TrEMBL record:
Protein species of origin: Chroococcidiopsis thermalis (strain PCC 7203)
InterPro entries in the record: GAF, GAF-like_dom_sf, HATPase_C_sf, HATPase_dom, His_kinase_dom, HisK_dim/P_dom, HisK_dim/P_sf, PAS
Catalytic activity: ATP + protein L-histidine = ADP + protein N-phospho-L-histidine
Ranges of residues in domain PAC: 284-336
PROSITE patterns attached to this UniProt entry: HIS_KIN, PAC
Name assigned to this protein: histidine kinase
Keywords, alphabetical: ATP-binding, Kinase, Nucleotide-binding, Phosphoprotein, Transferase, Two-component regulatory system
Domain of life: Bacteria
Length: 692
């Protein structure tokens, strides 16, 4: 028989049923939470995959985590480009608008390793649960801001990629002070792991997309023609320049061959080169002619190479072609110019040096008939100072620097000793290359000599002109008086000679004779100086008793100047003889003594002295007359020159010139000492025995 349940047993059964029901409800709730978490993880994965970039993905993750787990605020911190600290990401979330001020305050922070909650999580790579109220400011750096808005609890969660690199640190806050929730940490950690994988893949895809974009930009901005073809010769890809020049339909070029784009003869060459690249398994390059619609054929420098797969097999051919038409034209022009320059250089008969900025000889071209006789090993590779004298080397180096600075031709003239002979050279220095000059060296010795001869001839012509002018002035002055005397005396004799006595007639005849003699002497002086200037005055030495000769000269002068006293003194006891030209000696001392008499007062004596010393004889003529101005003493031996203080005293200006020429023919010397108003001393030194 069945016993009726007792109240105690019913109560126990009900209690068990309640426990079972509670367990079932817990299991159902756990199952529902698990399903919700699965749906949440699936949803957040989908949202992250649809985000545009890394920070957008972070923002979605923060929003979804906060909404699902109940955190009031979420933010992200990402490593800086140099990995020295964490910076605030633009990604953050909060459903409470009042928390924007906390967000703005956080934007100015940076966390170094192990500093603050983000810094500690960055280093440890592990989650960290934090009770804000229990932590000092040194541990939680933003404690004052967190306390102000009411945050009590915080969680730091790292997002780590497969390479164990922290991509970001997520930080969550809530107003409630909660004990550490292991399940919640695990849930967020699971999301962080998936987020790390997704973000890593997304970063890789973004980097790949960016690389592809950069690659395409590089290809399209390259001035070269770039294309890729498969092994059958069909185009897979071309850059914008290829399409602009040869096939405008850039998208439609895929699958086309060279025969669809180029003339058959060019297409055949291109495909033949493709086969060479595949067979050679190495890059090849060559020049090819391709058509341009605007101006015909252009020359391209092409490089082709194979692209290989992971197994090392070729799967495509890449070609890069550069238009070198202008370069080819420039090269042709350069070759033509070089040929022209070479012809010009070969036509120039001068020596040429190439010298660098430092003054070192680099190269040279020998001159035709070069008279320098300078072997190449004596200057190539050497400095200017090792080849030329110091002064010339310095001047040369200065010209080189000035040429390189101004880019203008510099000209330097110098004189060198070649084969014991002084030769003149002209150096024209011009820029020939960067930091290098060309020096063209020309022998201008003959030109210099010709110039010197021309200058000398011009000076002679100028002197001749001056002599002619002086001669005309002298002749017009000196001939006037004797001619006037002759004319007047002859007229008087013509008209009155029948009335005059014989003495008076004789007096006028003597005046005529004296004037004729004066004019004759004048013409003789002119002829003598002319012979001397022409080098036709001869030196004919004879053995002469100089003491006796001087006595005769004094007596001769004394006859024409009876009112003057000429005092002759010979400072030698013995007879003085020498091999001299008597005619030239007469010219010397008649002129010197006549001038001394002419330019002295009537009552003053003229001193004439003779002295011998070794192989020379010294004559000294001294007067106490008007003297010669100091500024004019250098010119007194010039033909037709007369001192400015002679006044009305007659003279031709030829006497001292004849004296100087006569002394020069004796290889002698003459010196003058004079003071205006005190007189003049002429000292003549002649060798006793000049060798003819």
């Amino acid at each position: 028989m069945n016993q009726e349940p007792t109240p105690e047993s019913l109560s126990a059964t009900i209690s068990q049923l309640k426990q079972i029901n509670e367990q079932l409800q817990l299991q159902v709730a756990a199952h529902q939470r698990a399903e919700a978490e699965v749906r949440f993880l699936h949803g957040i994965t989908q949202f992250i995959n649809e985000s545009h970039d890394f920070h957008s993905a972070l923002a979605i993750a923060l929003e979804k985590i906060c909404q699902f787990t109940g955190w009031q605020f979420g933010e992200a911190w990402t490593p800086s480009s140099d990995d020295r600290n964490l910076t605030c990401s633009p990604a953050w979330y909060s459903a409470d608008p009042s928390l924007e001020q906390f967000r703005h305050s956080s934007e100015g922070y940076k966390f170094a390793a192990n500093i603050g909650l983000p810094g500690r999580v960055w280093v440890s790579k592990r989650p960290e649960w934090l009770h804000i109220s229990q932590e000092p400011e040194t541990i939680f750096l933003r404690k004052s801001f967190a306390d102000r808005v009411g945050f009590k609890t915080a969680l730091g969660m790292p997002i780590v990629d497969s390479g164990d690199r922290v991509l970001a640190v997520l930080v969550f806050f809530m107003f409630a002070s909660c004990a550490e929730n292991t399940h919640l940490i695990e849930l967020v950690a699971t999301i962080a792991v998936q987020l790390g994988t997704l973000l890593q893949r997304q970063q890789a895809e973004a980097a790949l997309y960016q690389s592809q974009a950069w690659l395409q930009a590089i290809l399209d901005n390259s001035t070269a023609l770039i294309y890729i073809k498969d092994l059958d010769g069909k185009y897979l890809l071309v850059n914008v320049w290829f399409s602009l020049l040869f096939y405008p339909d850039r998208a439609g070029v895929k699958g086309k061959t060279d025969y669809d784009i180029f003339p058959p003869e060019i297409a055949a060459v291109l495909q033949q080169n493709d086969r060479k690249v595949i067979a050679a398994k190495s890059p090849i390059d060559w020049e090819e002619l391709l058509p341009h619609e605007d101006d015909g054929l252009h020359t391209y420098l092409s490089i082709k190479f194979s692209l290989y797969n992971e197994r090392g097999e070729p799967y495509a051919i890449c070609g890069i072609s550069t238009d070198i038409t202008e370069r080819k034209r420039a090269e042709d022009a350069l070759r033509s110019s070089m040929a022209t320059n070479r012809a010009l250089l070969n036509a120039i008969p001068d020596l040429m040096f190439r010298i660098n900025r430092s003054g070192v000889f680099v190269n040279f071209k020998a001159a035709k008939g070069d008279r320098l006789h300078l072997p190449a090993h004596e200057f190539l590779g050497k400095h200017l100072s090792e080849v030329f004298p110091t002064e010339i080397a310095k001047a040369f180096d200065s010209c080189i620097k000035r040429t390189l600075f101004t880019n203008e031709v510099q000209i330097l003239e110098c004189q060198l000793i070649v084969n014991d002979e002084f030769r003149d050279y002209e150096l024209r220095i011009a820029v020939s290359a960067e930091n290098e000059v060309m020096a063209i060296v020309r022998d201008i010795t003959d030109r210099k000599r010709t110039e010197a001869e021309i200058r000398l001839a011009l000076e002679k012509e100028k002197e001749l002109g001056e002599l002619k002018s002086r001669f005309v002035t002298m002749a017009s002055h000196e001939f006037r008086t004797p001619l006037a005397t002759i004319l007047s005396s002859s007229e008087l004799l013509e008209h009155y000679s029948h009335k005059w006595s014989e003495d008076r007639k004789l007096n006028h005849l003597q005046r005529i004779q004296t004037s004729v003699k004066h004019m004759t002497q004048l013409l003789n002086d002119v002829l003598l100086i002319g012979k001397a200037e022409a080098g036709k005055l001869e030196f004919k030495p004879l053995l002469i008793d100089l003491k006796q000769f001087c006595h005769e000269i004094v007596e001769e002068i004394q006859l024409t100047a009876s009112d003057r006293q000429i005092i002759f003194q010979c400072h030698a006891d013995e007879r003085i003889t020498g091999m001299m030209d008597e005619k030239l000696l007469r010219h010397i001392f008649i002129n010197l003594l006549s001038n001394a008499v002419k330019y002295s007062p009537a009552d003053s004596p003229v001193n004439f002295e003779l002295t011998n010393e070794c192989d020379t004889v010294i004559f000294r003529v001294r007067d106490r007359g008007i003297g010669i101005p100091l500024v004019e003493q250098a010119e007194i031996f010039s033909s037709f020159h007369r001192a400015s203080n002679v006044g009305n005293i007659s003279g031709t200006g030829l006497g001292l010139a004849i004296v100087k020429k006569s002394i020069d023919l004796h290889d002698g010397k003459i010196a003058v000492e004079s003071s205006v108003g005190l007189g003049t001393i002429f000292t003549v030194v002649l060798p006793l025995n000049k060798q003819v």
